[in-house]
Amino acid sequence: MPTTISSTLNDEIISQKALEAFTAELAPLNAFSTDFSSEFAGKGTAIQVPLLSSLSATTTENDYETDSGSAGYVTVPLDKYQKSTVGLTDKQFASSSAATLELFAAQQAKAVARAVLLDVLSLVLNANFAAKTTKALASFTSADVRAIRVALSKADIPKSDRTLFLDPDYYDKLVGDTSISIASALHYGGTDVIREGNIPRFLGFGITESTIIPDNSENLKGFACHPSALAIAMRVLQPQEPSEYLETRTVTDKKTGITLGYRRHYSPAKGKHFVTFEAVYGRVVADGTALHRIVSA
What whole-number distance in Å separates Cα of residue 76 and Cα of residue 48? Predict the structure, then answer.
């Protein structure tokens, strides 16, 4: 009896390889408010994403049931969808090793993650986040980061969990800023900037170098943000007829909750075997004062 497609593929290995790539690529989303789950949901479903509001103290004694702050929620509709499908002909499949298919899976997952990130960052616009610093690359320095820190503090944005995203050129300007490299080596006991070109933290910001910050037709080169700036939800799209597929499954990263949908089927009419990775998600602006843009002009 001939070996079938379903028996020669290890769905567990392929889907896990994809999940690893997907989770790594979506790491920048940790800078925002998120709700990831392995639950099934249809496109258009609304998710309540938790958004911690500012807390205040009170002098009232013997009252332990009156909130001095609350965990707010932002409604995020799952109105976005991204997928990546690879189709292999019978001949291609016969000559492909499991390792090759795993490589395809990782590339597919990265493609989906990149599309999600670009779509999320498309919201970083003047219409949504008016605060900005306008600096050409040649004049961008650590002093601008200090000014952005002050601007966020004056806007009453919490100092914790702030992240600064910069495109490679603007990030490199900070790496070349002697006030950072010297301080890192002499005062903070670390030589990451010199040895690795890595700035772990600076002035309360986690620093992220990103190659996919979109220009958004506004000369966007980076931004500083608090998680309350954007709310993102992600779920898995449930197949209408799971039995019609050779395999359907949901793979979830236990640490982050990031989830990816996996489908595999064979089309006799086309003589092709298809592997698909997908995500249904939504993103909305939560607090328009919690993100400060950096533009070149």
Answer: 6
